[in-house]
Amino acid sequence: MDDVPGWFWEVLDTARPSLAALESWLEAQPRGVLEDYALAYLEAAEALVDFSEGVTVDGVVWSEDSTEDLCMWVVGQGRAFWRSTVEGAWELPDAAQAYLGRSSPLMWEVTQWDEQVRRPEHAGYRSPGTLVHGVYRARFGQDLDERLTDG
């Protein structure tokens, strides 16, 4: 949990709820900062639960992909929301209800991101966790996931 750098949370919390503000910040950063942002985002998500174990919501164990999507969404809610979830003050199934737009004790804590981006090439990346991938691809012509696993 302490592996997630403070600057990452500052960026996310300052930009929220404007994806365009995050887009502007990402576009101004060097390659290494984009890579560090992507790694911090993933580390924060992985601190919540082992994706392969899934999360049980309404008696159903979610798939690894669905669990990862939920955890990435929790990170996008910012440092306070994430910390409350990772420390167990809030339960991941309650976060899942809020994620699905259902009634949840956490629904008042949720901030919906404005999905508007300025550049058309980023239109397919409309979340704070995926936008960095679109910016990276547009700026450097490389897939960020491949770059991170290579190196």
Question: Which short descriptors sum up this protein?
Answer:
151 residues; 54% helix
- Provide the helix percentage: 40-55%
Mean pLDDT figure? 93
Which percent band covers the strand fraction?
under 5%
Low-confidence stretches: none
Determine the number of helices (DSSP H or I, runs of at least 4 residues).
Answer: 8
Radius of gyration: 15 Å
Query: Sheet bearing the most strands, described?
Result: 2 strands, antiparallel
**Secondary structure tally: strands:** 2
Query: Span from first to last CA?
Result: 23 Å
What spatial form do the alpha-carbon principal axes imply?
globular
Structure, explained:
By secondary structure, the chain is mostly helical. The protein has a two-stranded antiparallel ribbon. The chain is 54% helix and 3% strand.
Give the SSE map.
Elements: H1 6-15, H2 19-27, H3 31-46, E1 56-57, E2 60-61, H4 64-76, H5 79-86, H6 92-99, H7 131-140, H8 144-150
Antiparallel strand pairs: 1-2
Helix pairs in contact: 2-7, 3-4, 3-7, 4-6
Quick recap of the structure?
By secondary structure, this protein is mainly α. The chain contains 8 helices and 2 strands, in the order αααββααααα.
